TrEMBL record, chain A:
Assembly information from the UniProt record: Tetramer of two alpha and two beta chains.
Organism: Algoriphagus aquimarinus
Gene Ontology molecular function: tryptophan synthase activity
Domain Tryptophan synthase beta chain-like PALP: 55-377
Pathway(s): Amino-acid biosynthesis; L-tryptophan biosynthesis; L-tryptophan from chorismate: step 5/5
Top-level taxon in the UniProt lineage: Bacteria
Keyword annotations of the record: Amino-acid biosynthesis, Aromatic amino acid biosynthesis, Lyase, Pyridoxal phosphate, Tryptophan biosynthesis
Protein's name in the database: Tryptophan synthase beta chain
Keyword Lyase among UniProt keywords: yes
Automatic annotation (TrEMBL), chain B:
General function of this protein: The alpha subunit is responsible for the aldol cleavage of indoleglycerol phosphate to indole and glyceraldehyde 3-phosphate.
Recorded family membership: Belongs to the TrpA family.
EC number: 4.2.1.20
Protein name: Tryptophan synthase alpha chain
Pathway the protein contributes to: Amino-acid biosynthesis; L-tryptophan biosynthesis; L-tryptophan from chorismate: step 5/5
Pfam families in the record: Trp_syntA (PF00290)
Keywords, sorted A to Z: Amino-acid biosynthesis, Aromatic amino acid biosynthesis, Lyase, Tryptophan biosynthesis
């Protein structure tokens, strides 16, 4: 069974390794989130906003030319059509309603490429809540349009100047900010990482992806279960959402595409399950990239959303027990897959999602197999990278 | 008997614990800093084990961690530096660090090594009580290591009692809801929290840390507890020092006298 236990563990991974200063915040969340999420009032508001504001359900699109090329029945779950351009908003909508119910006045968040920051700034504007987003100084420089988007939405963007000045350090800064403002502030974590209950809570908000996949496949294929689900994994929130309702359906193969960067052995990679070892990062026990002395290593991927040295504890568990197949996709292959989808289907994917597309070249399947690829985001934010890359 | 227990049996007030980052400002400064801290009048020494992602620490300690790591410090190296330190240092010594580097070293190997060199206790800020009890309590006890938990102004009375039950050395009272080195001075609100905890008559002694930097804050904190812990302010002292031994002794004397 793939299921979180009472202490927040998925098998050996998870838990809540946090400084005592955060204990009351985490306890408050742990004790309340399930009851709040189960309430009719919450569900009405959450479902209502997902429908009318985010634009759900997102289509499950049969990609006929892609299918023809690869020799399988390939569907794309179109999370790229969500408001703000990626699946991230499913989680921020859920968490901001939760924060309101907990009586919080301020929201803080971390962001890497800025997608989660934008999704957070968006829902804060929607709810009229004060929003501060922590972002690595280096990411601020290389993701300028998203910084401006957050500011237009009324959020304050604070540079994380410590450590390597990227996503992991932005996460550290957000945690520090939470320690400094424990009472009135809610921290919206953007992925299935962090201390329990975050990984499970975020996965549940994202599980709307596989919930829709089931009834959409039933309509189109006459069965709820595909043969294979493929998603990319950085921290792993879109993958957790796409896998969630299939965790315990062993006949559905789950494929997680990690970012190999310049190559797994190049020293410039983010292939956590290949290069990582068990350890503790950002409040949970998981698999992470580190030196033999236990210092966290800075990963590399062309896609900022996959540029994280760990993976969510649920993915560490799926890897550990062999429930999911992990493939490591190099920058160049992801870029080629992104350009291929653009020209076969008229959809420019986010480079993160392009990693999932390339997995079609790395796994085995047959002509009759129904494959769903979670197209987690659109490529607008990546235009600069596509342009610099060329080859189209 | 553990040196931490012995200390609090003989000294009940104005206990001063000094935190420093191992391998900072220079790689080989670890032992000289300990020697100078003892000579200056510190009662406990906390050796900070550097980590790339210290979430409970403010910029001063973060920077010292980064520099120490750049200098080439590691847990292995720290234990090398600590070999034989008990020939000269007789006060209690505590290792303070985040879990991940220790897990990579191996928790049992770490405990064994602590005992071997003469470390008395541990402060692991990201090891919560539950995980401690589930995974490490027996191990720490087996090697005679006293584990210290933190409490903050947000910690409930019930949890403070639980922590008191599960502690046998001292309780680390974080003075405000903040990371290290974030605030200076002590407010009315903090005094109210100090008084509230004092009135609980806990079985363990309490040391107040975070925001303690000089004689005045040390004395105020000591009025409501058994003493205090200085970290960031001490790091600042050693950072700019041209003569470590002299500056450290001068600084500590200025705090305690």
């Amino acid at each position: 069974m793939i299921k979180v236990d009472e202490k927040g563990f998925y098998g050996k991974f998870g838990g809540a390794y946090i400084p005592e200063m955060l204990h009351p915040n985490i306890e408050e969340l742990k004790e309340n989130y399930e009851a709040i999420m189960a309430s009719q009032e919450f569900q009405d508001e959450f479902r209502g906003l997902l429908k009318d504001y985010v634009g759900r359900p997102t289509p499950l699109y049969f990609a006929s030319r892609l299918s023809e090329k690869y020799g399988a029945k390939i569907y794309l779950k179109r999370e790229d059509l969500c408001h703000t351009g990626a699946h991230k908003v499913n989680n921020t909508i859920g968490q901001i309603i939760l924060a309101k119910k907990l009586g919080k006045k301020r929201i803080i968040a971390e962001t890497g490429a800025g997608q989660h920051g934008v999704a957070t700034a968006t829902v804060c504007a929607l709810m009229g809540m004060e929003c501060t987003v922590y972002m690595g100084e280096i990411d601020i420089a290389r993701q300028h349009p998203n910084v401006e988007r957050m500011k237009i939405l009324g959020a304050k963007v604070v540079p994380a100047t410590s450590g390597s000045k990227t996503l992991k350090d932005a996460t550290n800064e957000a945690m520090r900010a939470w320690i400094n403002n424990p009472v009135d502030t809610h921290y919206i974590i953007g992925s299935v990482v962090g201390p329990h209950p975050y990984p499970e809570m975020v996965a549940r908000f994202q599980s709307v992806i596989s919930e829709e996949m089931k009834w959409q496949l039933k309509e189109k294929e006459g069965r709820e279960n595909p043969d294979i689900v493929i998603a990319c994994v950085g921290g792993g929130s879109n993958a957790a959402g796409a896998f969630y309702h299939y965790y315990n359906t062993p006949e559905v193969r789950l494929v997680a595409a990690e970012a190999a960067g310049l190559g797994v052995l190049s020293g410039k990679s983010a292939a956590t399950t290949v290069l990582g070892t068990p350890g503790v990062l950002h409040g949970s026990k998981t698999i992470l990239m580190q030196t033999e002395d236990g210092q966290v290593v800075e990963p590399h991927s062309i896609s900022a959303g996959l540029d994280y040295p760990g993976i969510g504890p649920v993915h560490a568990h799926l890897f550990d027990v062999g429930r999911a197949e992990f493939v490591a996709v190099e920058d160049k292959d992801a870029m080629a897959a992104g350009i291929e989808l653009s020209q076969l289907e008229g959809i420019i994917p986010a480079i993160e999602s392009a990693h999932a597309l390339h997995a079609l070249n790395m796994i085995e399947y047959s002509k009759e197999d129904v494959i769903v690829i979670n197209l987690s985001g659109r490529g607008d934010k990546d235009l600069d990278t596509y342009i610099k890359w060329g080859g189209y | 008997m553990n040196r931490i227990h012995t200390l609090f049996e003989t000294k009940k007030a104005r206990v001063l614990s000094i935190y420093f980052t191992a391998g900072f400002p220079a790689l080989e400064d670890t032992f000289p800093i300990m020697e100078a801290a003892q000579a200056g009048g510190a009662d406990i020494i906390e050796i900070g084990v550097p980590y790339s992602d210290p979430v409970a620490d403010g910029p001063t300690i973060q920077d010292s961690n980064m520099i120490a790591l750049e200098n080439g410090i590691s847990l292995k190296k720290i234990f090398d530096q600590l070999k034989g330190f008990r020939a000269k240092i007789h006060i209690p010594v505590v290792m303070m660090g985040y879990l991940n580097p220790i897990i990579q070293y191996g928790m049992e190997a770490f405990c064994q090594k602590c005992k071997e060199v003469g470390v008395d206790g541990l402060i692991l800020p990201d090891l919560p009580m539950q995980q401690y009890q589930d995974d490490y309590k027996e191990l720490f006890e087996q090697y005679g290591l006293v584990n210290t938990f933190l409490i903050s102004p947000q910690t409930s009375e019930k949890r403070i009692r639980e922590i008191d039950e599960n502690t046998s050395g001292f309780i680390y009272m974080v003075s405000s809801h903040s990371t290290t080195g974030a605030k200076t001075g002590i407010s009315e609100e903090q005094i109210a929290y100090f008084e509230r905890v004092k009135a609980m008559n806990l079985k363990n002694p309490r040391l107040i840390g975070f925001g303690i930097s000089d004689s005045e804050t040390f004395t105020t904190a000591s009025n409501y507890s058994n003493g205090a812990i200085i970290g960031s302010a001490f790091i600042k002292t050693v950072k700019d020092s041209k003569n470590l031994s002299e500056d450290i002794q001068k600084y500590i004397q200025s705090v305690v006298n």
